[in-house]
Amino acid sequence: MNTRRDFFQKLLGAGLGMYSLQIPETLRLLQSESLKSPGRKIIATWNNQKAVEAAWKVLSQNGSALDAVEAGARVPEADPEDTSVGYGGFPDRDGEVTLDACIMDHLGRSGSVMFVRNIKHVVSLARRVMEKTPHVYLAGEGAERFAESEGFPKENLLTEKARKAWEEWLIKAEYKPKINAERHDTIGILAQDHLKNLSGACTTSGMAFKMKGRVGDSPIIGSGLFVDNEVGAATGTGLGEAVNRKVGAFSIVEMIRQGMHPQKACRKAIERLCSIQDYGEFQVGYIALDHKGQIGAYSLRKGFQYIVVEEGKIKLFDSDYHFH
Ligand code: GLY
Questions:
Q1: Nearest residue by C-alpha to atom 4 in ligand 1
Q2: 81 falls within a domain
Q3: For this structure, is 186 an active site residue?
Q4: For residue 32, how far is its CA from the centre of ligand 1 (angstroms)?
Q5: What is the CATH number for 117?
Q6: Is the pTM of this model over 0.85?
Q7: Crossing angle of helices 65-78/122-132, nearest 10°?
Q8: Smallest CA separation from ligand 1 atom 5, residue
Q9: Catalytic hit among 98, 159, 186, 237
Q10: Does residue 22 lie within any of the structural domains?
Q11: How far is CA 317 from the centre of its chain?
């Protein structure tokens, strides 16, 4: 993760606001294939290059947006170096890793899991909730039992790195959100496929060293993610409490429905957060993709990045932001 971050920071140092990233050979081949059928698009929070590569691989082979966002979200879930998602995520203040995720498809179906322990791929578990149960949300022990019945392996998600960070945190045990935590935080990912269908997913280990049982915005349909195939899709990253209070993703999609460009809708949704004073300084970043394939992104503070794949080309952007 450090190497990737250093790479992007060097580019930032060069004063560039947008970067074309190197595309591996396999993707280059898929890219030439995809140019025959344009329109497919992916947008994700932060510099999740490997995640969007995995998602693009699905889209470029005429896979669905739903399969693409799931494939993308699974990448940081499996990465032990990513300390805010899945395996390797920082634990709660009792030293236990608990995960939240959700997924939503072009039919308006959604599935969500929260406060899940020992299951790495919670985005896939959320999809099973959507496809195999009559429910939208499953939490804690119930979600874990469902995972077991679906054959998900039980794994210890606490890495040595995360355990050490928790032990250091215990010395002061300050309960304080970090802005741009490690320059990545939650992954939210949105995609449009060759049939113009939209889907989205969101997955996180939540706020580092949170209270036991704390759930943020990421598994909350309408806050952390919302998709309306006729209109657009939105997701976010940052302090979940703030996003939940303003029902971020749904409000962005509703503004797009009223005719706003996704960029303006993201900015307006960020401006709504400014009335929240009681968390001190915090970060929130939103991204959106409308049914026409137009994208938007905006954050409260400097430092939020998002990544886009269009016609097989991956580009990283520095988001515009509110507080200059
Ligand atoms: N946005 C992730 C969380 O607050 O849990």
A1: 240
A2: yes
A3: yes
A4: 37
A5: 3.60.20.30
A6: yes
A7: 150
A8: 206
A9: 186
A10: no
A11: 16
Containing domain of residue 305, as a range? 39-321
pLDDT in tens, the chain (324 residues): 333 433 333 333 333 356 655 545 444 444 444 444 468 999 999 999 999 999 999 999 999 999 999 999 999 999 999 999 999 999 999 999 999 999 999 999 999 999 999 999 999 999 999 999 999 999 999 999 999 999 999 999 999 999 999 999 999 988 776 666 545 578 999 999 999 999 999 999 999 999 999 999 999 999 999 999 999 999 999 999 999 999 999 999 999 999 999 999 999 999 999 999 888 889 999 999 999 999 999 999 999 999 999 999 999 999 999 999
Which mutation among 83, 114, 207, 283 tests ligand 1's pocket best, with the greatest number of atoms within 8 A of CB?
Answer: 207
Ligand 1, pocket residues at CB < 6 Å:
186, 204, 206-207, 216-218, 237-240
CA of 80 from ligand 1 middle (Å) equals: 18
- Ligand 1 midpoint to CA 235 (Å): 11
Residue 72 covered by a domain: yes
The total number of structural domains in the chain stands at 1
Residue 128 lies in a domain: yes
